[in-house]
Amino acid sequence: MSPKISRRQFIKAGTAAAAVLAIVPASSILKIGANRNGEKVIVIGAGLAGLSCAYELNKAGFDVTVLEARTRPGGRVRTYRDPFADHLYAEMGAEYVNSEDRFARKYTEIFGLNILTAKLYDGIYVRGKKFKMADFQKLKQTLPYEGTTGGVLFGQEKKYIQHWVDEISTWAELNSVSCMSCHEFGGQEKIKNAINLNHLPQKILDLDQLSVAGLLRKEGAPKDIIDLYTYTNATESTGRPETLSALSLVMGHFMAGGFDEETDEGRILGGNDQLPKAFAKALAPKVMYNRPVKKIAHDPSGVEITFLEDGKLTAMKSDKCVIAMPVSILRRTKITPEFTPAKMHCIRKQSYGHVMKIAMQFRRRFWDEPGSLGQRVFTDTPLRRVYHFSIDQPGPRGIILSFTSGAHAEKLGRMRIEGRMTVAEQSCSEIWSETSRFWEGGVSKYWNEDPWLRASYSMNGVGQKDFRGILAGSEGPFHFAGEHTSTHRSSMNGAIESGVRAGREIIEG
Ligand SMILES: Cc1cc2nc3c(=O)[nH]c(=O)nc-3n(C[C@H](O)[C@H](O)[C@H](O)COP(=O)(O)OP(=O)(O)OC[C@H]3O[C@@H](n4cnc5c(N)ncnc54)[C@H](O)[C@@H]3O)c2cc1C
Fold first, then answer.
1. Contact criterion met (CB below 8 Å) for 88 and 270
2. Higher per-residue pLDDT: 9 or 494
3. What is the mean pLDDT of residues 1-28?
4. pLDDT band at residue 314 under the 50/70/90 scheme
5. Does residue 265 line the site of ligand 1, with CB under 6 A?
6. From ligand 1's centre to the CA of 383, what distance in Å?
7. Is the distance from the beta carbon of residue 357 to the nearest atom of ligand 1 less than 6 Å?
């Protein structure tokens, strides 16, 4: 049986299967070190992808410059501290580091950071009904969604697509190929016969032309199953069942094996921002902040990158360039001459969802008191995931975080901050009656309005099964990093994996 994988890995599964052979083992991180003195490389973007790439290139003796549009490192890793009292903080971007996130864990170890284990859901609030997770798992209550099985929250759609999963398993057995999770998540060395998505039978590949909602409807799933999917895996993907590829759903279930809700998650104790800050400190003078790149040009003599510096357009030349900015911004950047048509198509079309985090400060941690539904509640309210974040701090104050996505994030995103907070307070009041008594205020971060992202993170859109591989491929002096190029897409781990991979491409020349 395949090892268990986490929900976040589950949502990325289709992508991961597409290019298993391109994976860089985390164990090789420190081994790369060919010295190519003086060769100049510009890295665009000081998110984890750009930083990890620059860090490895710098170590290998390259002359690296990182151009970053913001005045801080980390991109989508964003820890807020100032808005809160009592040294409280909140992750407004990337949060969880899973037990299998080998790249993220390797570098947290290198920089002496610790991972704090975070708890999973202990409550459910859907369609106005409240469930204690423990009671729900003991089958004392059932979900108010037609067609569901008792005791489990995630994966309710599986029985409707089981025959597709079985077909892949049979094919894999006949062709002596292994489930890639054996390599990816079992910590083994690269295996020879891992599944390459493009070798699957055509009728399975054709599922990429269907959406999750389309396939579930075709397989006779009730509308409620699709509705529930919106709040389970589609929430993590930041998309909608209508926009996510059915192939990635089926591959996710094939790879997930013993998938359940008990996988360990964690986050960096004291704030995830410590990781990009540690990379950036190691590179200090080589990172240039407040330098948004406007134009990427190249000719046989090399690369020329034009960026804004003190309000003026400035050009910098290099031998090589690593593009580690999100494609949602790259598609708004002038590229001359353009990359290959296939690459340009993916840059323009790569799907992203909508995502918002809301951090709410309360004077008392009433969610831990008797009678509370719990401190980590799965909901179908506009806040979707609602959970106590400040578990590593003593209280009495505490922060409840909301991770919301898809149509709910989009709708909240159209509101002003006051409107968002009214919805947040009302939704929390439905879960905990003490909300208004102890509410002190909140902040939100809607990533789709962030000028250097305008998106969430990449997702498996319908018809996009080949996108990741195309986006990751180097072209002439250009190498590409960023979560959207990684088999571990939409994660910090994937961003780092891609940065290390792009660095290796240059080092190995
Ligand atoms: C709300 C939210 C929750 C998440 N939750 C998790 C989670 O729980 N666990 C997890 O592992 N991951 C999570 N992620 C995903 C994770 O944050 C990303 O996959 C990862 O941080 C992406 O890193 P990156 O380097 O590829 O991109 P980014 O972090 O976006 O970095 C790209 C950098 O490029 C810069 N840039 C953009 N345009 C330009 C330009 N024109 N010129 C120069 N620089 C430019 C940006 O400012 C940015 O610093 C979450 C993301 C969000 C938004």
1. no
2. 494
3. 46
4. very high
5. no
6. 22
7. yes
CATH class of segment(s) 79-122+354-449? alpha beta
Q: What is the amino acid identity at position 20?
A: V
Domain range annotation of the chain = 32-75+273-351+467-507, 79-122+354-449, 157-261
Is 491 close to ligand 1, i.e. is its CB under 6 Å away?
yes
Q: Quickly state the pLDDT bin for 254 (edges 50, 70, 90).
A: confident
CA distance 79 to 119: 19
Terminal CA-CA length for the chain: 39
pLDDT tens-digit series, residues 177-228: 766 544 333 333 444 556 677 788 999 999 999 999 999 999 999 999 999 9
Query: How far is it, in rounded angstroms, from Cα 196 to Cα 204?
Result: 13
Tell me how far apart the alpha carbons of residues 171 and 199 are, in angstroms, rounded to a whole number: 10
Which region among 44-58, 162-176, 200-214 has the lowest average model confidence (pLDDT)? 162-176
Overall size of the chain counted in residues: 509
Domain made up of 32-75+273-351+467-507: CATH architecture: 3-Layer(bba) Sandwich (3.50)
Sign of CA pseudo-dihedral 240, 243, 249, 252? negative
302-309 and 129-132 strand pairing:
unpaired
Of 152, 204, 115, nearest in space to 7 by CA:
152
In angstroms, the CA 385 to CA 387 distance is 7
Higher pLDDT, 98 or 76: 76
For 111, phi then psi, to 5°, come to -90, 10
Across 352-369, average pLDDT? 98
**Lowest-confidence segment of 196-205, 268-277, 300-309, 405-414 by average pLDDT:** 196-205
Longest dimension (CA), the chain: 70
456 lines ligand 1 (CB under 6 A): yes
Would you say the CATH fold of 79-122+354-449 matches that of 32-75+273-351+467-507? no
- Name residues whose C-beta falls within 8 Å of residue 174's C-beta, 6 or more positions apart in sequence: none
User: How far is ligand 1, taken at its centre, from the CA of residue 76, in Å?
Assistant: 3
> Cα separation of 93 and 115, whole Å?
17
| Ligand 1 touching residue 450 (CB < 6 A) | no
Under 8 Å between Cβ of 91 and 267 = yes
Question: Rounded to 5 degrees, what are φ and ψ at 218?
Answer: -60, -35
d(CA 471, CA 136): 43
What's the whole-number average pLDDT of the chain?
Answer: 90
Q: Write the single-letter amino acid at 86.
A: D
Strand partners, 44: 67, 323
Contact 242, 217 (CB under 8 A): no
* Residue whose tokens read 């083992």: 25
